[in-house]
Amino acid sequence: MRRLKKLAKFLLAVYILSIIMLYFLQEKLIFLPSQLPQDYAYSFALPHTEFNLETPDGAMLNGLHFKNTDSKGVILYFHGNAGDLSRWGEIALFFVEKQYDVVIMDYRSYGKSTGKLSPQALFDDAQLFYDYTLGHYQESNITLYGRSLGTGIATELASRNLPKQLVLETPFYSLVDVAKEMFPILPVSLFLKYKFPSFEYMQQVACPVGIFHGTSDSIVPFDSGKKLFEAIPNEQKTFYTVEGGGHNNLISFPQYHEGIKKVLP
C-alpha cells in the first residue's frame, strides 16, 4: 500500500509538472519562427515589393507584395507556424503564376518582423495587412488564404470583414482541438493562451468558404478540419478532400489542383 501511495504521488507530481511546463513553453511549441537579418535581400523568380508596416505598439511587420501586370485579384496569405518569408514567398509563387497578386506577411518574431506575440496582436496585425491590401484593391477582389496556423488568423479576420472568399488549407476546429489530440490526458483548454476557436469565428463569416484537407494529415487531424466545415452556418461552403494528403504536401495531389481551379479560376 505504501508503495502504491508513493507511486501515486510521483505520478501526480509528473502530471502537475507537465502542465506547468506546457503552460510556460506553449509559445515555443506553437510558434517555430526563423529569423532573418534586417538587411536580408529576398530573391524570387517573379517581381515583388518588400514593405514594412508599423503597429500601434511599435512592432515592425515585414511583408511581400507580388504583382501581376494583369491580375485576377489578390490573395492575402497567412502562413503556417514555421519558417519565414524567404520560404513562404516561394510557396506564394504558386498563386502568382495563376495570375493572382499575393500579399503575405511574417508574424511577429518571424523573419524580419519584430514585436511580442499574443493572440490579440496576431489578429490586430492581420487587420493591419488587410487594411494595406484594401488600399490597393477593392474588397470584392480580396481572397483570404490561411494555411495551418494561419487558418485561425485568416478565419478570425474574415469574421470582421467582407472579402471575396476564405480559403483554408489544413485548418483546425480550434487549436484546443489539436492540443487535445497531442496531449489527451492534460487539461489543455484551461491553460492554452492561443485557443484560436475557428468554429466560433466561422459563425460571423459571411463570404464563401473553401477548405482543403488531407486524409493522412498527422499534424492537424482530418476530422478536425471536417468538424470545422460542419460548423459553418454559411451554405456557400465546399470541402475538398485530398485522399492520402499529409499536412505539407497537398500541392503534390491532383485533387488539390482541381479544387484550386474552382476557387481561383
Question: What does the model show?
Answer:
It contains nine helices and ten strands. Helix content is 39%, strand content 19%. The model has no long low-confidence stretch (mean pLDDT 90). It is an alpha/beta fold and 265 residues long. An eight-stranded mixed beta sheet has the order 2-3-6-4-7-8-9-10, sandwiched between helices. A two-stranded parallel sheet has the order 1-5. It has two domains: 1-30; 32-263, Rossmann fold (3-Layer(aba) Sandwich), CATH 3.40.50.
Anisotropy-based shape: globular
CATH topology of the largest domain: Rossmann fold
Strand portion, in percent? 15-25%
Q: What portion of residues is helical?
A: 25-40%
**Would you list the SSEs in sequence order as H and E?**
HEEEEEHEHEHEHHHEHEH
Backbone CA Rg: 20 Å
Q: List how many beta strands DSSP finds.
A: 10
Give the averaged pLDDT, no decimals: 90
Q: List the strand order in the largest sheet.
A: 2-3-6-4-7-8-9-10
Judging by the overall fold, what is the CATH architecture of the largest domain?
3-Layer(aba) Sandwich
Low-confidence stretches: none
CATH hierarchy, class of the largest domain: Alpha Beta
Indicate the structural class: alpha/beta
Q: What is the CATH homology-level superfamily of the largest domain?
A: Alpha/Beta hydrolase fold, catalytic domain
- Our measurement of the CA-to-CA distance between the termini, rounded to an integer number of angstroms, reads 69 Å
The major beta sheet can be summarized as: 8 strands, mixed
Summed up, the domain count is 2
Count of helix runs: 9
